[in-house]
Specification:
6 helices, globular, mainly alpha
Length: about 120
């Protein structure tokens, strides 16, 4: 992302009184992700970008939850089920994963486009 977009988002993060009310319950990385999405939606980069980003994020998150389910199941010696895995992943790992993902998905996107 170019410096201008980052500056605009950072500016919104610092000055938005809306954030105090509606985003206060979220971690800093989740608030940043929400504001990134709001920013890109507001400048209308097109439906294709939004759909692609949403799909990519969802697939990556599902893979992480699936991996988490596998490890929890191995620890407990039985299949723990999706509900338990999802709840545990959200409670214990979602914020950190979101922070990592939002920092690295641009690089991953570039790498996948270069390979194609």
């Amino acid at each position: 992302m170019n410096g201008t977009g980052s500056a605009l988002i950072a500016d919104r993060m610092e000055t938005s009184s809306e954030m105090d009310c509606s985003l206060a319950a979220y971690s800093p990385s989740e608030r940043k992700a929400i504001l990134y999405h709001r920013f890109f939606l507001s400048i209308e980069l097109g439906k294709v970008w939004r759909r692609t980003k949403t799909q990519r994020d969802g697939i990556a998150q599902l893979k992480e939850i699936e991996r988490h389910k596998y490890y929890l199941s191995m620890q407990s010696g039985r299949d723990i089920g999706w509900d338990v895995a999802i709840f545990d992943w959200i409670r214990n790992h979602a914020a950190a994963w979101r922070e990592w993902w939002e920092q690295h998905w641009w690089e991953k996107q570039w790498w996948e486009e270069e390979k194609a």
